[in-house]
Amino acid sequence: MNFEKEIQPIFQKHCYSCHGSEKQKGDLRFDRRDSFFKGGGSGPAIVAGKSEASLLMARIQSKNPEEQMPPQGDRLSSAEIRSIKNWIDRGADWPKTSDVDARLTHWAYQPVKRPDVPSLPKDSTAKNPIDNFLIQKLAQSHLKMNPEADKVTLLRRLKFDLLGLPPTPEEVQAFLKDNDPNAYEKCVDKFLAAPQFGERWARHWLDVVRFAETQGFEMNLFRPNAWPYRDYVIRSLNEDKPYDRFVKEQLAGDQLGQGEATGYLVAGAYDMVKGDPLLNAQQRADELHDIIGTTGTTFLGVTLGCARCHDHKFDPVSQADYYGLKAVFAGVQHGERPVKTGQTTVNPLLNEERFPAVEARYVRMTLLKTEGNAEPCIDELEIFTSGPASRNVALAKNGTKVTASGTLPGYAIHKLEFINDGQPGNSHSWISHQTGQGWVQFELPKVEKIDRVVWSRDRLGQFADRLAVAYRIEVAREPDHWQTVVKKDYTVSDGSSKLPYQIYAGRFTAPEKTHRLLRGEITAPKEEMAAAAPVSLGAKLQLPMNAPEEKRRLALADWIVDPKNPLTARVMVNRLWQHHFGAGIVATPSDFGINGAKPVHPELLDWLADEFVIGGWKMKRIHKLIVMSAAYRQASTPNSQGLAADTDARLLWRYPPARLEAEPLRDTILFISGKLDLTAGGPGFDLFEPNSNYVKVYIPKTKFGPPEWRRMIYMTKQRMRVDDTFGAFDCPDAGQTAPKRTNSTTAFQVLNLFNSPFMLQQAGFFAERIQKEAGKESRAQIQRAFWLAYQREPQEAEIGEAKKLIEKHGLKAFCLALFNTNEFLFVF
C-alpha cells in the first residue's frame, strides 16, 4: 500500500486535530512517524502485522462514545477502516520522508503571498506602505508612533546607519538650511550612492558568513590572499548587485566571471594539521559540514547542519537531504587558485580610482580600448575632493564645464552633458564617436584638492557593452600641464580583459563519492548519494550521480534564488530590517525554522519579500523604503505607555536607540580626530605585531600610524582573536557565523576607551585639530569640539564645565572625555 496516498490523508482528515503538531492528546502524534510508532500514554497505537491486536483498530471501530476515535465529528468510513486494517496487516510501512509534510505547515515554509496594504485614515502619518502595516499593528495595542525626530538627530542616525560615519558640521548646517521638502530624501540618495555604503554594510554580511583572514584552529596562520572576497562584497553592495546574482556568484562565481566571490565557500576555519587517514577523513567531513551549515543559515534561515547524524528533529530536513547537499560541495577544497579578473576589475556598474591627493582644476580621462572594440560609453563620472568632507566637484550644477573628443551623433539619450548631470543610467550617458577610444575633460570652477575619480558604464545595471578596459586619468592646475595619476590596462595579448592572480577562494576538484553516514560516523558509510537540495524546502532538485562539480553548485544556486523558494527573500529582507532597527521582524535571523522566533509583523515581512523580488532583488530599493518610512524617522523618546506594552519597541512605537558597533565607533574616532584614511580596497592592515612562528602568536600593537588609520572593515580579520581595544565591543571572532551581535556593557569597554594607547593617541590628534581649526580661545575650541563630536552647539552650562576640565587637565583630556560620553557612543 502507498502510505502517503492511502493512509496519511485519513490521519490528516480525522486525527490531526487531536494528535497533530498543535495538540497531542494522550501524548500521541499521528503526524510524525517516530512518535506514532512510539505510541502515547496508553501504549503503542498499533502492532505491525497484527490489526486485531492494535489499539488503533479497537478505537476506530468502537461503539463506546468514551473510547471511540475520533470522539467528535465524522466517523471513519468502512473503506477507511478497511484501508488502515490492510496497512497494519501488511506491516504498517511508513516511509521516513512522509512525516515531513506536517512540519511544512510552519509559516516560513509557506509560499510568499503579497498581502494587501492596510488602509489608514487620511490624517495618518504614514510615509509609505511599511508604515501602514506598523500603524495598524500599533493600534491593536493602543499605541502610536512618535513624532518625527529633529533634523540633526535624523541626519546623524541616517549617516551612521548607511555609511557608519557621523555627518560633518558642514553637512548638518547645510541640511538645517535646506527647506526643500525632499531634503531628507536627497541625503538618503547621496548616502546610498557613496562608496562608504558598501564598507558599512559589508561588515554585516561578513559576520553572517564567518569571514576571516586566518585559518583558525591551533596554528591560526594568515591567509594572505583572502581579502579579495571582502572587496567583492563591498563592491557588490555599492553596485547594488541584485541579490539573486549575489547569491549565485558566491556559490558558483568561478562559472559566472566573479572568481573572488567563491571566497564565501572557504571563508570558514581550516585545520592545517593533518595526520592519519581517519583524522583526515574526519577533518574533510567537518569542512563540508561547515559549508553546508553556513549555506543553510545564511541564505535559507534553516539549520541544515542538524541533519548530519539523523533526520532533523524539528524542521523538514532529512539526513538524506544533508548528504545530498554534501554531494553538491564534494569538489570544494580549501586553498588558493588563480583567478581571471575580467569584470571583477573593470565593472560596468561602478569603478573607483584613488590616487594621492593632488591640487587640480582640470581632469581628463582618456579611453584607450573597450571590451569588443565598440565606442566607449560612460553614464556618470564623478571627481571627489580629499578629506572628511569629501564632495563631488564634477557636477555641472556646481559650474564644472566638460569637453570631449567627440560624441556619437544621432542619439538623444547619449549626450556629453549627461556625463556629469548626476543622473546615472544608459539613458543619461555619453558615447564617444571613436571606435574603442576617446577622451573627456572636466574644468572645475576653481582649483580643488582631489584624490578620487568614480565612473560607470551603466550604474543601473542594464548594459555592460562599450566598457572601457584600458584608460588613463590625468590632472592639471593649468591647461597643458598634465600629470598622470591613474593608468589602467586590463587587456592581455589576445585582446581580452582578464588577468590571472592567486586568491583564497577555494579549489575545485572532481567530486569525491558521497555516502550517507550512519549516525554521521565516517566509519559507517551507507548508500551513495547524488547531489540534491532538501526535498521539502523548494522545487525538486536531484542531479545525476556523475554530475560535474560546477553544475552541482550552479544548480543549487538556481534552486536557492528561485522566486518560488519561500525562504530566500524573506531571510534577506529580515536581515536588512534588523540592521536598520536593531532587531529583525524575525528575531532569529538565521533560523526561520520551527525553533526560531515567530515574526512580529508576518504580513509586512511577506510584503517586503515580494517587493524585493518584483523589484529585481535590488537591496538599495529596500534600504530606501525602510529609511524613508515614518517608523525609521520617528523620535526615540520613550513614554510610559509604550514601555509598558512593548519594552523593546519591537512594534516600533519609537525608534530604538543603540550604541555604535565596534567598527563605526573606531572609524568615527579617526574621522573626528582628522586621521581617517578612506583608501578603499586591497590588503588590510594588521593590529598585531608580525611574527613567523609555527603557531601564530598574537601580540597587540601599542603604536599606530597611517597604515592603521583606515576603516576597520580593512583590518585583517583574525579568527579567534579580536582587536585589543574594540574587540570588547562585541566583535565576533569568526569562529562561527554571527547573524546578530550581542550587546554587552562591561568594565573592559570603559577601561579601553579611557586608557588604551590608541584612544590616548587619537584624543591628542583631536586636540591638535581643534587648536588648528578654532584657535587658542577655549570657548571656540569647545564649540568646535561639540560640533565635531555631537554635531550641535554646546549649551552654556556645558561650556562652563568643559572650561573647568580643560583648565585642570588640558585639552587632550577634554577630547578623551568626549569620546567616552553616551551622546558620542549612542545613536538615538
Task: Describe this entry's structure for a reader.
With 828 residues, the chain is an alpha+beta fold. Among the domains are: 3-103, no CATH class; 346-498, no CATH class; 757-827. Helices cover 36% and strands 11% of the residues. β9 and β10 (483-489) form a beta hairpin. The model has no long low-confidence stretch (mean pLDDT 93).
Mean pLDDT: 93
- In terms of DSSP E residues, the strand content is 5-15%
Instruction: Note the total helix count.
Output: 28
Count the strands? 16
Q: Provide the low-confidence segments as ranges.
A: none
Fraction of residues in H or I helices: 25-40%
Overall shape: globular
Rg, alpha carbons: 31 Å
Structural class: alpha+beta
Largest sheet geometry: 6 strands, antiparallel
User: N-to-C terminal Cα separation, in Å?
Assistant: 64 Å
Name some characteristics of this structure.
DUF1553 domain-containing protein, metal ion binding, 828 residues, heme binding, 28 helices, 36% helix, two-stranded antiparallel ribbon, six-stranded antiparallel beta sheet, single chain, alpha+beta
